[in-house]
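Can you give me the bound-state structure? Components:
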Amino acid sequence: MPDIRHRVVISAPLERVYEAVATKEGISEWWTRDGVEGESSEGSRLQFFFGQPEPAAVMEITRLSPYGQVSWKCVEGADEWVGTTLDFDLANKDDETVVLFTHADWREPTEFMAHCSARWAYFLLSLKSYQEFGKGTPFPEDLKF
Amino acid sequence: MPDIRHRVVISAPLERVYEAVATKEGISEWWTRDGVEGESSEGSRLQFFFGQPEPAAVMEITRLSPYGQVSWKCVEGADEWVGTTLDFDLANKDDETVVLFTHADWREPTEFMAHCSARWAYFLLSLKSYQEFGKGTPFPEDLKF
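Here's the bound-state model for the whole set.
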């Protein structure tokens, strides 16, 4: 099954990058400021809003480890997203944190998947900017493309 | 075999985006300003320089069609790149140009591939910025990550 994989290096401690990916407050600074609702704990669900009354995606949190793993399974949202899994694997390297991001188990390598691949890279660079300069570019401040 | 695929929409005519991807002058505005050498014609080779005396990659041009296709095959460069193929497929959509980029036939989904995936998305947004605002972020002006 085709996967999206990105690697981005961030000049910030792993603990801080983990907070940015694991908490609703953190996620709102780099992915969507329009709303992250639910409880961020293993087995719970998070709803992500992007300008619509309904969430664009609902993720079940399948792993949340402060050692540097955050995993979600998409349970509601775009047809092509439902059933896919998302992993943020964080690792210390020198004084930086390596983020290995995987959005896996797409059924087909569609044009929408290619769109999402570029979008994820953009938002991971938003995460980097948030960590390094205190300001990301989450929706709706994101570049549209 | 794992592939990198990105889709980016650019507010510029297809002919202009094609020039930016098909010519040495164009490529130097969004990928590398450090040097693109050789002849840009089908069957020829282009050398791409990134701050070293040796080219970081040598690509054989396997397709060059003004209808919107530019294809390369990597013949020299990083071990993991040699033998891979790169395609820029351009399509008109309303008044914009859709760029579907594929870097295909990687042997393994390595961490280096994930790095290159995020890098390609970054440089495709550099291409977009060059087309829309007249200024890209090619090497060495690129963000390092």
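A couple of observations. Residues 44 and 108 of chain A are 28 Å apart (CA to CA). The first strand of chain A starts at residue 4 and ends at 10.
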